[in-house]
Amino acid sequence: MKFKNSVITGGAGFVGSNLVDRLVSIGHKVIVLDNFVSGKKSNLSHHSEKNVKIIKIDISDKNLDKYFKKADYIFHLAALAEIIPSFKDPNKYFKNNVIGTLNVLKAAKKVKIKKLIYAASSSCYGAPKKFPTSEKDKIDLKHPYAETKFIGEELVMRYASIFKMPNISFRFFNVYGPRLNVSGQYSAVIGNFLTQTKNRKPLTVVGDGKQTRDFIHVDDLINAFIQVIKSKSVNKIYNLGSGKRTSINTIAKIFGGKKKFIPIRPGEPKNSVANIKKVKKEINWKPKISIEQGIKNLLSS
Ligand code: UDP
Hints:
By secondary structure, the chain is an alpha/beta fold. It has a single domain, classed as Rossmann fold (3-Layer(aba) Sandwich), CATH 3.40.50. Helix content is 36%, strand content 19%. It has helices at 14-25, 65-68, 83-88, 90-108, 144-163, 189-198, 218-230, 248-255, 277-283, 291-300, and strands at 5-9, 29-34, 52-56, 73-76, 115-121, 167-172, 174-176, 203-206, 212-213, 215-217, 236-240, 246-247, 259-262. The strands form four sheets. It has a seven-stranded parallel beta sheet, sandwiched between helices. A two-stranded parallel sheet has the order 7-10. Helix 1 (14-25) links the parallel strand 1 (5-9) and strand 2 (29-34). It is globular. Bound molecules: uridine-5'-diphosphate. The site of uridine-5'-diphosphate (UDP) has 12 residues, from helix 6 and strand 8. Uridine-5'-diphosphate (UDP) is lined by residues 174, 188-189, 192, 204-206, 211, 213, 248, 265, 268.
C-alpha cells in the first residue's frame, strides 16, 4: 500500500507527539509544524527525518501552502492551551488560536485532502447543567481560551459546509498520558500529581477535591483519530472523553500518598463529563483504558 502523508500542527506537543508515533507506526509520512512554545524537540527525537519532518514555524503569521501540498490528512492541534494566562493576554490567544486556525483552513482548502481534524475543547460547555454533556448542549464561553478555541471550531465547520471540506472537530475532555506537561504553574492535575508523587511531595488537591472530570487516556484519544480518518464521517463535531466522571479525590487515592488542600480556582466548573454516544456510534470507537490502569502505567514508566 502506498504511504499516506499527514501534517500535524502542534506535533511536538503532548497529544501531537503521541499522534506522530501512531501515524508513523501505521506507515504515514509526517510533517510537524510547531513553534516550540510548549512543544518539545525531545518528544520527537526518536524519529528519523525520513518519516518525520519537523518545521519550526508559527502558523498564525505564515503562509502554509507549501507544507500542505501533498497532504492526505491534516491534524490541527497547535494552540495556546492555558486558561488563566488567556485572561492576561487575550490578543495572543486570538492570534494563535483563531488566526492560526484560519491560516490552516485557507491553505487546506487549496488541496484535495481526505480529512482535516481540529482539536476543539470541552471548555465550550463552561459550567454545564446537564450531565453527561452532549454536543447539542449549551455553549457557555467563560474565558478567552474557551472563546478562541470555539471560534476556531466555528471556522472549521463553516469551511466544511461552505467549501465542502471533509472536516471534523473533536471536543477534548481531560486528556492524560505519557508526555503530559508535568511542570508548569497551570499544568493538568494528573501531571502535577505525577511530579509530586515522584518528588515525594503531598498531592495538591484544589478545593474539597469532590469536583469531577472526564479523564481520557491519550492512546484512546488517538484511536478515535485513526477511526475517524477511516470513516466516511465529515462535517461533524464529536465529544471525546471517557464518558466516566472521576473526582479529584479518587485520582489522589489512585496515586496514593498524602493530600494537601489548596484554594479553589474561581470560575472553574464543579463537574464535567462527556456524553460519548455520538462518537461511539458514528466512528465505531470506544475508550478502553480505565483511569486506574492509565495512572498505573504512568507511575511505572
Ligand atoms: N486540580 C487539582 N490539583 C492540581 C491541579 C488541578 O486538584 O494540582 C483540579 C482543578 O482544580 C480541577 C481539576 O483538578 O478541578 C482538573 O484540572 P485541570 O487543570 O487538570 O483541568 P481543567 O478541567 O481545569 O481544564
